[in-house]
Amino acid sequence: MYVLLMLLAVGCRNKQQRNIEFMPDMYESPAYKTYEVAPLSPPEHTVKRGELPYSYPNTIEGYEQAKVQLHNPLATDTLQQTQNLTDGKALYGIYCALCHGEKGDGKGILVQREKFFGVPNYKNRDFTEGSIYHVIYYGRNAMPAFATQLSEKERWQVTMYVEQLRDKR
């Protein structure tokens, strides 16, 4: 009986008029402007769970301190070091090789296409594991910071691989 009434109501409507909107708020969304609200940043003086605060500031003095005082805390046994270097090589290929090149010669694909200039060669550079980590953390010159993309362990793995590239050259 109800089905017959529904069919009668649907079949007898005037097709020249607009349909009745059932729940119009489903059809018309409120207008939002892109980037109207700034993205949330973590509160000041907080640290990501599971990580230690980085105590060197983003200054020349902080760089020099990190260069002298900061040392790699990752395990030094052969098996762990091999795994860390393997992981560091993979991360280097993702984040660094575009500019610095697969061999660390400063001739990555973006440099070859002349998107960036002055990317350093690792061969004759005066840097330590602390200074490499500091530059990965904060960035330097045209290089962006990777502190948000890489965890602390990953940054140290990349540092280990960069040192290996420098020693090979």
Automatic annotation (TrEMBL):
Describe the location of the Cytochrome c domain by residue ranges.
83-166
Alphabetical keyword list: Heme, Iron, Metal-binding
Q: Where are the transmembrane segments?
A: none
InterPro entries, per database record: Cyt_c-like_dom (IPR009056), Cyt_c-like_dom_sf (IPR036909)
Q: Note the superkingdom of the native organism.
A: Bacteria
User: PROSITE patterns from the entry?
Assistant: CYTC
Please give the PANTHER family that the UniProt record associates with this protein. LIPOPROTEIN-RELATED (PTHR40394), QUINOL:CYTOCHROME C OXIDOREDUCTASE MEMBRANE PROTEIN (PTHR40394:SF2)
Q: What is this protein called?
A: Cytochrome C
* Origin species: Capnocytophaga sputigena
